[in-house]
Known about the structure:
The structure is a homodimer of 211-residue chains.
Chain A: H1 3-35, E1 38-43, H2 73-82, E2 87-92, H3 98-109, E3 113-119, H4 130-135, E4 139-143, E5 152-156, E6 160-164, H5 170-174, E7 178-183, H6 186-202, H7 205-210
Parallel strand pairs in A: 2-3, 3-4
Antiparallel strand pairs in A: 1-7, 2-5, 5-6, 6-7
Amino acid sequence: MSLMWSVKVVGLGVVALSLSLELLGWVFGRCRRRRTLNKVLFFPSKVSCVEHLFSENSACSCFCPLPHGVETSFSCLLRHILSASSSLDLCVFSFSNMDMSRAVLLLHSKGVTIRVLSDKDYSAITGSQIGVLRKAGVCVRCDAGSVHMHHKFAVVDGRLLITGSLNWTLTAVQSNMENIIITEEAKLVQPFIKEFNQIWALNDPALSYKR
Amino acid sequence: MSLMWSVKVVGLGVVALSLSLELLGWVFGRCRRRRTLNKVLFFPSKVSCVEHLFSENSACSCFCPLPHGVETSFSCLLRHILSASSSLDLCVFSFSNMDMSRAVLLLHSKGVTIRVLSDKDYSAITGSQIGVLRKAGVCVRCDAGSVHMHHKFAVVDGRLLITGSLNWTLTAVQSNMENIIITEEAKLVQPFIKEFNQIWALNDPALSYKR
């Protein structure tokens, strides 16, 4: 074997090795991208029993007359809310849905750090769950600075954004045409986390005592 | 040179070539991913002059008392709406913002195919721009099937989704706390296109004549 051939073989080997590393990076990149959740839910949702979502035992038996074992937009939304293991930041204009309130209370009882921001006017209307959450010891702040705090978003564990047109009410879930985006896309999640922290800090009750 | 060495060299060459192709694909993939727009806008927006966005001449002179040359959430939103070159599908609960109406009319005058879906009740309130658009010849359909058609989204050229909590009103833009996501992420855009087409078809006036 000539020296030139040896050089060529070694060179090709180096190229093959570096390209293999690039390929590995590409494969890992693709796997990571595939895992990034991007989901859209539309409402009104079909009505089904969601009792199993609140039970530790996934095979819970419920004898209510609603359809069982059916995945609907609402059960999917509830599942993602209930997936919180460390924190739930919730910023919602109107909150009167009992199942969603029950989900927040369940997470609170499990030690998940909950922060709830709501609109001052709408938190006081009949059926609002804001008072219920407050009484249960959930941290709640109401915005009085703007005409309306009209957001409807939640951030689960600082990584999952749930946002859209849907207020957390029964009418929104069962009667209106609404949409919800559920995404882990950092470029979308991070600005919402920043926005939440800003509104949360602006509505610190300690600030109003100082004024 | 032995036969075995030739086989090794050719084999390594093939590996290097295939990996180079993978690398090229990876580079193109990364470039494409980088270009995928994912943006979040928050409101209320600062108020600034948006006259230049409606002018063919980018250096248009406006002498109104509002700040000029300032990029705000609203000017950014308007810019993305006005970027439509072939179609704009708009599905919005409440539409009374004059600048946004002007943008839709400008696109219509340029030959962009516009379809507007709105809520039946809210399209009839004082200040609604739905009648103005209809009179100008824009295709408008109002949903009467649900309690409220509460969506607030637009799809530009079948590729760009604009969605969030913001109704197309002056209060939403200048006074409320609101959010808008602007994204080209296909997994988010495509379901909204499908949803729009379904609601559009469901509210075809020809269907109500047949009923």
